[in-house]
Amino acid sequence: MNRAGLEKAYRQALYLAWLPDGELVLRVGPADPQADRRLAGSGSCRRNWALLTPCNPRSERLDAAANQRLYNQLEGELHALSQAWHRSLHRDPSGQWPDEPGFLLIDPPPERAVELGRRYRQNAIVAAELGQESRVVWLDDAAM
């Protein structure tokens, strides 16, 4: 899939995150004041957030066992980094792409989410500052 197709897929996706007070749906696009309030309250977010999955690197479908290994590896790294996070699920509403489990990183230091995304060979991550539009952050133009 080319970059334009990937951009469309990221923008149409639903990003489900499980905060202590329940499920939160995030999308790429304009700031969502209600989501920001929940992220700041139940999610303990003070500045920024990022969505990251280790599954299906470079949009190449892996089997469930391989994706689970990557997920477990990234979860271990987040614990080792003492990075705050909540579970997430990245969903294609058309059902053409399988759900991808991932992580909603809370207040990651500058470049951490980008570095992790690159290490897990992702094309992009989704990120935002509270009160700002969420955006697709491309990680490696050479892969497009």
TrEMBL record:
This is DUF3293 domain-containing protein. It comes from the Bacteria. InterPro entries: DUF3293 (IPR021710). Pfam families: DUF3293. It comes from Solimonas fluminis.
